[in-house]
C-alpha cells in the first residue's frame, strides 16, 4: 500500500511540474492579472516542495498505511485539479486571443478581397511617415478606381462585379514590392502606399499598373476590359498627414478622369477645380429641381429640299447669379460622373417632347433631335422613360431622333444595342453623332438602326484649309450615302464651306452660318426666315 502512496505522490509532483509550463505561458500572454498568475506559479512551486517533503516522509518514516494512501490520493487529486485548471485557462486565453486577432483582422481588412481597409491604410501611411522623417525619404500614395465599373455590376450582376474586384488585387500586387501596402477603400476604389519611392518611380509604377489592367479579365468565357484612373500624391511635397495625402491623391485621380488620362500627379491648382466641381454638382441638382435649365434649338437645313428639316435640342443652364448661360460641356461630364445624368436626361426628354407636342398643335411639323449620354445607353430605365413620355405627350415617335456616339456603346455593346433596338421598336429614329472622333467601327455602324450620320465639326470647320479634314469629310459623306444614311455636317460657319459640302453630296447641314441655337419662342421666326431666303 505504501508503494501506491509513493506512486500517487510522485504522479502529483509530475502534474504540478507540468502545470508550471502553461502557467509560465499564461504569464507571458496575460496582459491583465499578470501578477496573480505569477503568484499562482509561486504557489505551485510551494506545493511541489510540500509534495517532495511528504514523499521524503513516506520513504524514510512509517505511518498507518491506509492514512498514507488517502493523503497521497488527495495530493494526487489536487495536483491533477491544478494542472487541469491551468491547462484549460491557457486554452481559453489562447482561444480568446485568437478570436480577438480574427476580429482585429476583420476590423482592419476588406472582407471581399482581404486587403487592408481604410483604417489600416491610415496606420500604414502614418507609420511610413514616421520612418520617412527619420530617413528623410519620400512616400508616394496612389489612389485609383475603375472606370465604368458600375456598368459591370448593372450588366453582369454584383456577383461577377465582386469576382472582378477579387481578381484585381493580385494584379496590383504583381506591380509593387512586398513591403508596399495595397488597400481597398470601398467599391471599386483602391490605394497603394509606396515608402521610399520618388515621383518618377511612382509614375513608372502607375504605368505598370495601367498595363497590368489592360489585360482582359475572363468572365464566363468572355473577355472583359477595364480602364483605371490613378491619382498620385507625394510626401512631403503634397501633404504631411495621411488624410491630406489621400485627399490630394483623390483630387489628382479625378483630374486624370477629367483629362481622360491614365494617371495624374496632384497639383495645388486642382484643389480649386475640385471645389468648383463639388459646388457645380450641388448647384446642378438644384437646377434640375428648380427648373433652371432651358432648351435651345438649332435648325438642321436640307440642301436637297432647301428648307429646315428639323432642329436639335441643346440644353443650357441659366444660373441665377450669372448673366450668361452654361453650355453642356461645362456640366454634362459632372452629371455623368455623379449620376445626375438620369434626371437631367429625363428633364430634356420631357421638355423636348412637350415642345414638339406644342408645335404639332400649332400645325408646325418640326422633328427634334436629342442627344443621349453613354450612361443613358446602359440604363435599363431609358426605354420605359421614353415610352411613358411618348404616351404622356401623344407625339409621333418618328419625329424624335436620338443622337448617340460610337464611343458611348463601347463599355457594353450588347446592352447598348439591346436598349437601342427596344427604343427603335417604339418608332424612335437614331443618328450617329461625332462620327470619326471615337471608335469608328463599320460593323457597329452596319448593325445600328440609324438613319443619319453626323460629321463632327472638328473636321468640317477647317476643311477648306486642311486637306486631311477635306478627305475625311468627303469619305464620310460617301460612306453615309453608300450605306443609305443621310449625312449631316455640323459646325458650318461659312458660306464657302456650305457650298463645298453641297458639291460633295452632303444632304443636311447645321451650324452658325445657318442659325445659332435659339430658345423655343424665337426659333420659329428664324426657321421661317431661313426657308424664305436660302442661307
Q: In brief, what are we looking at here?
A:
By secondary structure, the chain is of the alpha/beta class.
Overall helicity: 55-70%
Widest beta sheet: strand line-up: 8-9-11-12-13-14-15-16
Overall 3D geometry? Answer: elongated
Distance between the termini: 129 Å
- Number of DSSP strand runs: 17
Class based on secondary structure composition and strand pairing: alpha/beta
> How large is the radius of gyration?
38 Å
The main pleated sheet reads as: 8 strands, mixed, barrel
Number of helices: 19
Low-confidence stretches: none
Proportion of beta-strand residues: 15-25%
**Average pLDDT value?**
85
Oligomer: single chain
SSE topology sketch:
Elements: H1 2-29, H2 34-60, H3 65-108, H4 118-135, E1 139-147, H5 149-156, H6 158-173, E2 181-186, E3 189-195, H7 199-214, E4 217-219, E5 222-224, E6 227-235, H8 242-258, E7 263-265, H9 268-289, E8 293-302, E9 307-318, E10 325-326, H10 328-338, H11 341-361, E11 368-371, H12 374-377, H13 381-393, E12 400-405, H14 413-425, E13 429-435, H15 442-447, E14 452-455, H16 457-460, H17 467-482, E15 486-489, H18 495-504, E16 508-509, E17 518-519, H19 520-532
Parallel strand pairs: 6-7, 9-11, 11-12, 12-13, 13-14, 14-15, 15-16
Antiparallel strand pairs: 1-3, 1-6, 2-3, 4-5, 8-9, 8-16, 8-17, 9-10
Features of this protein?
8-stranded mixed β-barrel, 5-stranded mixed beta sheet
What does this structure look like?
The protein has 535 residues and is α/β, with parallel strands linked by helices. Helices cover 57% and strands 17% of the residues. It contains 19 helices and 17 strands. It has helices spanning 2-29, 34-60, 65-108, 118-135, 149-156, 158-173, 199-214, 242-258, 268-289, 328-338, 341-361, 374-377, 381-393, 413-425, 442-447, 457-460, 467-482, 495-504, 520-532, and strands at residues 139-147, 181-186, 189-195, 217-219, 222-224, 227-235, 263-265, 293-302, 307-318, 325-326, 368-371, 400-405, 429-435, 452-455, 486-489, 508-509, 518-519. An 8-stranded mixed β-barrel has the order 8-9-11-12-13-14-15-16, surrounded by 4 helices. Strand 4 and strand 5 (222-224) form a beta hairpin. The chain is elongated and about 140 Å long. The mean pLDDT is 85.
Amino acid at each position: 500500500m505504501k508503494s501506491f502512496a509513493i506512486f500517487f505522490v510522485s504522479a502529483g509532483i509530475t502534474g504540478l511540474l507540468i502545470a508550471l509550463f502553461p502557467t509560465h505561458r499564461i504569464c507571458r500572454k496575460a496582459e491583465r492579472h499578470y501578477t496573480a498568475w505569477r503568484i499562482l506559479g509561486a504557489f505551485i512551486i510551494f506545493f511541489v516542495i510540500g509534495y517532495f517533503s511528504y514523499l521524503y516522509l513516506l520513504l524514510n518514516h512509517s505511518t498507518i498505511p491506509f492514512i498514507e494512501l488517502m493523503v497521497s490520493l488527495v495530493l494526487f487529486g489536487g495536483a491533477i485539479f491544478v494542472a487541469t485548471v491551468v491547462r484549460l485557462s491557457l486554452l481559453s486565453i489562447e482561444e480568446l486571443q485568437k478570436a480577438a486577432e480574427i476580429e482585429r483582422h476583420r476590423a482592419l481588412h476588406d472582407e471581399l478581397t482581404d486587403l487592408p481597409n481604410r483604417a489600416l491604410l491610415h496606420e500604414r501611411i502614418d507609420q511610413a511617415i514616421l520612418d520617412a522623417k527619420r530617413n528623410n525619404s519620400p512616400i508616394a500614395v496612389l489612389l485609383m478606381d475603375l472606370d465604368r465599373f458600375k456598368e459591370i455590376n448593372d450588366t453582369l450582376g454584383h456577383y461577377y462585379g465582386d469576382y472582378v474586384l477579387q481578381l484585381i488585387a493580385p494584379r496590383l500586387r504583381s506591380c509593387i514590392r512586398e513591403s508596399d501596402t495595397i488597400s481597398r477603400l470601398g467599391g471599386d476604389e483602391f490605394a497603394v502606399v509606396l515608402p521610399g519611392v520618388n515621383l518618377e518611380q511612382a509614375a513608372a509604377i502607375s504605368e505598370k499598373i495601367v498595363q497590368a489592367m489592360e489585360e482582359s479579365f475572363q468572365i464566363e468565357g468572355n473577355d472583359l476590359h477595364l480602364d483605371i484612373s490613378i491619382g498620385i500624391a507625394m510626401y512631403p511635397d503634397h501633404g504631411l498627414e495621411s488624410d491630406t495625402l489621400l485627399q490630394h491623391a483623390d483630387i489628382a485621380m479625378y483630374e486624370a478622369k477629367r483629362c481622360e488620362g491614365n494617371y495624374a500627379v496632384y497639383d495645388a491648382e486642382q484643389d480649386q477645380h475640385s471645389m468648383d466641381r463639388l459646388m457645380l454638382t450641388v448647384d446642378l441638382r438644384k437646377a434640375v429641381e428648380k427648373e433652371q435649365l432651358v432648351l435651345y434649338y438649332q435648325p438642321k437645313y436640307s440642301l436637297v429640299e432647301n428648307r429646315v428639316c428639323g432642329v436639335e435640342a441643346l440644353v443650357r443652364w441659366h444660373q441665377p447669379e450669372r448673366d450668361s448661360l452654361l453650355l453642356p460641356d461645362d456640366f454634362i461630364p459632372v452629371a455623368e460622373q455623379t449620376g445626375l445624368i438620369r434626371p437631367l436626361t429625363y428633364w430634356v426628354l420631357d421638355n423636348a417632347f412637350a415642345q414638339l407636342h406644342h408645335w404639332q398643335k400649332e400645325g408646325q411639323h418640326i422633328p427634334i433631335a436629342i442627344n443621349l449620354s453613354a450612361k443613358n445607353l446602359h440604363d435599363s430605365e431609358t426605354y420605359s422613360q421614353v415610352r411613358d413620355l411618348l404616351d404622356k405627350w401623344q407625339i409621333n415617335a418618328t419625329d424624335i431622333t436620338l443622337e448617340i456616339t460610337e464611343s458611348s456603346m463601347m463599355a457594353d455593346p450588347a446592352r447598348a444595342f439591346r436598349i437601342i433596338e427596344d427604343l427603335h421598336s417604339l418608332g424612335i429614329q437614331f443618328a450617329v453623332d461625332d462620327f470619326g472622333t471615337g471608335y469608328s467601327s463599320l460593323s457597329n455602324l452596319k448593325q445600328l438602326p440609324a438613319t443619319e450620320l453626323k460629321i463632327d465639326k472638328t473636321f468640317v470647320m477647317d476643311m477648306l484649309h486642311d486637306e486631311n479634314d477635306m478627305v475625311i469629310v468627303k469619305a464620310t459623306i460617301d460612306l453615309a450615302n453608300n450605306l443609305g444614311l443621310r449625312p449631316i455636317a455640323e459646325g458650318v460657319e461659312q458660306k464657302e464651306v456650305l457650298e463645298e459640302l453641297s458639291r460633295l453630296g452632303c444632304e443636311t447641314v447645321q451650324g452658325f452660318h445657318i442659325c445659332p441655337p435659339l430658345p423655343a419662342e424665337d426659333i420659329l421666326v428664324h426657321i421661317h426666315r431661313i426657308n424664305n431666303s436660302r442661307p
